[in-house]
Amino acid sequence: MPDGPDGPDGPGGALSGAYRVTAYLDGETCRIEVADSGPGFPYAELPAAPADAEHGRGMRLIEELSDHVQFGNRSGRGGAVVSFDKILKWKDTPSLLMA
Question: What pTM was estimated for this model as a whole?
Fold first, then answer.
C-alpha cells in the first residue's frame, strides 16, 4: 500500500506524516486498518466535536458505522493504529420496498 501524501513518496518526504491504509476481506467481514507514524493520541480523552465542526468527527463516524472498532498506539515505533470491521450481509431482495 502507498504511504500518505507526506510520506517518503509524497511532497514532504518526511516519515512523521506517513500513513498506511490496509483493507482485508474475510468472508462476510471487511476490516480496514489505518496506521500512522505520528505521536499517537489519547482517544478516550478526545472531546466530542460540535455538529457544525469541520474537523474532529471522523473517529465518531467510524464508531457509529462500524461493527467493531479498535484504537491503539504503537509502542516503541510510535504512531496510532485504528482498525474497524464492517460485517457485509448481502441480501437477495432489494433494500427499498417497491410500492
Answer: 0.66
